[in-house]
Amino acid sequence: LELLRPRPLLCCTRAVDQSRAAMLRQGVSLLRQQLRSYSASATQTITMIPGDGIGPEISASVKKIFAAAQVNVKWEDVDVTPTFENGQSTIPRAAKESIFKNKVALKGPLATPIGKGHRSLNLLLRQTFNLMANVRPCRSVPGFKTLYDEVDTVIIRENTEGEYCGVEHEVVPGVVQSIKLITKDASMRVANYAFEHARANNRKRVTAVHKSTIMKQSDGLFLECCRVTAERYPDIVFDEVLLDKACLMMTLNPHNFDVLVMPNLYGDILSDLSAGLIGGLGLTPSGNIGVDGIAIFESVHGTAPDIAGQDKANPTALVLSSVMMLRHLGLNEQAKNIEDAILGVIADGKVRTGDLGGSSSCSQFTDAVCERLQ
Length: 374
Description:
The chain has 374 residues and is an alpha/beta fold. Helices cover 39% and strands 20% of the residues. A 10-stranded mixed sheet has the order 2-1-5-14-13-6-7-12-10-11, with helices on both faces. Helix 2 (55-68) packs parallel to helix 11 (362-373).
């Protein structure tokens, strides 16, 4: 699993209008911020959001594995249970200060309080920290057999707008309207990121997923931004596909795709579909890249309250997300050691949690990974 660290953009040689030039300068600034210098010998402070349900258990697993791998990090645990300020749901001040200070966070699964007026916690985090791109690698796990072998795709999802912008209202009783927001700036940012990721990781193709045949203006704008961006990357093949056809092609033959970029809702759907091809959300890492240099890595499965506190959870998704985080920090050797250890335990087949067809506990699985690191 690769880290998706962007590289500086190459500006167009042809004339551009002022708004596009400003957007490109913003993109260059963003990518430079994310190339901050880290040292393997210096202690990195990481904000840890343990989460709810099984979150504390799998977060503890990550900490134990990092200790066994001798990763020089300091964990700063925070609680993101939302509070109200000026009548609006918000992240607690201490948590915001920690993430803004450290620039990097690892997050377990979160449950949004029901019936208390709070927005989705995950959506609130994305909007609070302007996390413009969600990055979901989907790669087959060696030794864990599924319907497809050697799946290796990356879904890059615009993370701040689309149907998830949270703008809804009742027109008249019995008629509700939900706004789909697509902007040029956000679309260009995520398109730039997708192509930069492809180039940085020696990937050959970027596919834009859309539904511009129906949503001609909103998806049409997103698609046009992808087309304009593709012109600056002649070394990368660009194509475009309708969402419904993309789902069909993905399930028939996932090897059709390499890097895919798409608006928010489509990415939510297609990334979970892709996870099913390699064994489920319990094996899938995720990272969120922010405009202001902040990155939050997370497990994308649920809180699993039915098994919380029973030592049955599979920590793999959060551990692999932490591997992405380490690569983001430039700690590539430690990342590879942990990745090799956890994938080796799964491939060996002797110690697996229940969702992977085994009977081992979370603690036993964690200990097996640690043994390979010592």
